[in-house]
Amino acid sequence: MSLKIKDLPEENLFTKGHTACPGCGGAIMAKIAMKVFGKNTCAYFPANCLLVFGGTYPLNAFKVPYLHVLFENSAVCAAGIKRALNKLGKEDVNVVAFAGDGGTADIGIQALSGAAERNEDIIYICYDNEAYMNTGIQRSGSTPFGAWTTTTPVGSKIAGKERFKKDVPRIMIAHDVPYVATASISYPLDLLKKLEKVKNMKGFRYLQIFAPCPTGWRLDPSKTVEIGKLAVESGMWTLYEFENGKMTINKKPKMIPVREYLKPQGRFRHLTDEQIDILQELVKKKWERDLAMAESTH
Ligand SMILES: Cc1ncc(C[n+]2csc(CCOP(=O)(O)OP(=O)(O)O)c2C)c(N)n1
Ligand SMILES: [Mg+2]
């Protein structure tokens, strides 16, 4: 039976009193994830917003043991602790790394890849806000094409990021681990299902959760959930899971024009019609590719 919102415990293990910006998608992710994972969990954070707004003494919001590790090595730290806990006979502890997209797509990718290749028995969550937000909105490998960041400025010669978003879930699929999924804070039931699944599985589990950042995206903070829905409905973000070699698409996008997703966000305000066409074409190709993969693996 799949988990519903009303089934979640009242108690928060990621509590109020943290210092996230209004409308932070990462905070929503942490609150839901910790309700599913429960008390028997320990968490590992490389440098990121979540650690800073939720795990800094004396304002720590996480009510489970957690450790701040280096930017480069959250996956291997989590894996080492999991092995140590097993040796102590504590095999039922959920060991979870909570990394940002920068700590995943760029700086932590060698540790992530190594841990995945060894099929370490951990849960790795990347909350994807599409830039290095904690240090002031620098572009990461996960920043989408065209987006303004402080390191992809808008000027007369360049206009936002010139390269495309690095597709880390597909890189993880190539590691042939037991479970890889994409999710979004805007689709809580789908997210709950995936969190519950990773909690109850063994081996390396990777979940990349779309987590809008109103501050970095120059978005009205009341629109966090809405923009996450537009990302999925436009095809910019696909909800899927890859389990034991099979890929399943969890939501077929309506394929609304990508422009509808871009419009509310100041980080895309400068885009030309030509750049929007490039993104629209990219979305189409990505969807066709995901669909083909889902069909070929079933
Ligand atoms: C080796 C290293 N380089 C740079 C930093 C500075 N730093 C701390 S948090 C951060 C941004 C993290 O970005 P991301 O992983 O996307 O998480 P977010 O802040 O967006 O939640 C950076 C660059 C650091 N702590 N360690
Ligand atoms: Mg980030």
Short description:
This protein has 298 residues and is an alpha/beta fold.
Could you outline the blueprint of secondary structure elements for this entry?
Layout (H helix, E strand, L loop, with lengths): L24 H13 L3 E5 L3 H6 L11 E3 L5 H14 L6 E7 H6 L2 H9 L5 E6 L39 H6 L5 E6 L3 H12 L5 E6 L3 H4 L6 H11 L5 E4 L2 E4 L8 H5 L10 H25 L1
Parallel strand pairs: 1-2, 1-3, 3-4, 4-6, 5-6
Antiparallel strand pairs: 5-7, 7-8
Bound molecules: thiamine diphosphate (TPP) and magnesium ion.
Give an account of the 3D structure.
- With 298 residues, this protein is an alpha/beta fold.
- It has one domain (5-297): Thiamin diphosphate (ThDP)-binding fold, Pyr/PP domains (Rossmann fold, 3-Layer(aba) Sandwich), CATH 3.40.50.970.
- Helix content is 37%, strand content 14%.
- The chain has helices at residues 25-37, 49-54, 74-87, 101-106, 109-117, 168-173, 188-199, 214-217, 224-234, 258-262, 273-297, and strands at residues 41-45, 66-68, 94-100, 123-128, 179-184, 205-210, 240-243, 246-249.
- An 8-stranded mixed sheet has the order 2-1-3-4-6-5-7-8, sandwiched between helices.
- Helix 1 packs across helix 7 and helix 3 (74-87) runs parallel beside helix 5.
- The longest helix is centred in the C-terminal third of the chain and has 25 residues, at 273-297.
- Thiamine diphosphate (TPP) binds at residues 26, 47-50, 71, 100-103, 129, 132-135, 140.
